[in-house]
Structures are given as structure tokens and as C-alpha cells.
Design brief:
The chain has one domain. By secondary structure, it is mostly helical. The termini are far apart. A hairpin with a 4-residue loop joins strand 1 and strand 2. The chain has six helices and two strands, in the order E-E-H-H-H-H-H-H. Helices cover 62% and strands 4% of the residues. It has a two-stranded antiparallel sheet with strand order 1-2.
Length: 113
């Protein structure tokens, strides 16, 4: 199976599945949609809405992020622009602070046209 390029982060050298393999269903999908937002299509809004839904489900479930995934998420986020709300959502997701992750996803959604 050939994986699409929008699931590869060239700057960090990490494939999305290298991270999601460690994550629960909801957390994995939240991360996947943050990771590919604006990459699969020019309009990131649909992916961000999905990321928000999965983040809210993760918050309700009290989902955690294993240490192995935290390190990889931090590596991907490190190469995102400093002011990128998706970067901050990823970093809060990595530590399991769903309230903050949701807040940054909502900020990014408001910025979408």
C-alpha cells in the first residue's frame, strides 16, 4: 500500500502513522487530522472540524498519550511555524491537555475562510 505524501512531514522525517500507531482511536484520528490539515486540500477547515470532534471525544474519555508518541509529536510540532495554532494544539495533545488542544483547534477553525 502506498501512503500519500500529505501523511509525511518532510522537515521532521516522520510519517503520521509512526505516531498514530501508538495512539487510541480518538487521539490517533485527532492527531491525523491536525497533521494533514491544509495538506490534503487547500482548505483545512474539514480536517480541523474532524480533529475538533475527536479531541472532544478524547477529552470525554480521558484519553492519554504514551511517551513514545509524545516525543514524535514534539518532533513534528518543532518544525511548524511558531504562531501556528495547529502546532500548539499538537503540543497540548501530546501532554493530554484536551481543554488547551481544543482551544487551539477552535482558534485555527475561526481563522479558516
Amino acid at each position: 500500500m502506498k501512503t500519500k505524501n500529505y501523511y509525511y512531514d518532510e522537515a521532521s522525517g516522520i510519517w503520521c502513522h509512526e505516531i498514530t500507531d501508538y495512539l487510541s482511536f480518538n487521539v490517533g484520528n485527532c492527531f491525523k487530522y491536525l497533521f494533514r490539515a491544509g495538506r490534503k486540500t487547500a482548505n483545512a477547515k474539514g480536517d480541523l472540524e474532524k480533529a475538533l470532534d475527536y479531541a472532544k471525544q478524547s477529552q470525554r474519555n480521558g484519553d492519554d498519550v504514551p511517551e513514545e508518541a509524545k516525543e514524535l509529536i514534539e518532533r513534528v510540532a518543532k518544525y511548524r511555524p511558531h504562531a501556528d495554532n495547529r502546532k500548539h494544539a499538537m503540543l497540548w495533545l501530546a501532554v493530554g491537555d484536551w481543554k488547551m488542544a481544543i482551544g487551539y483547534i477552535e482558534l485555527e477553525l475561526r481563522a479558516c475562510k
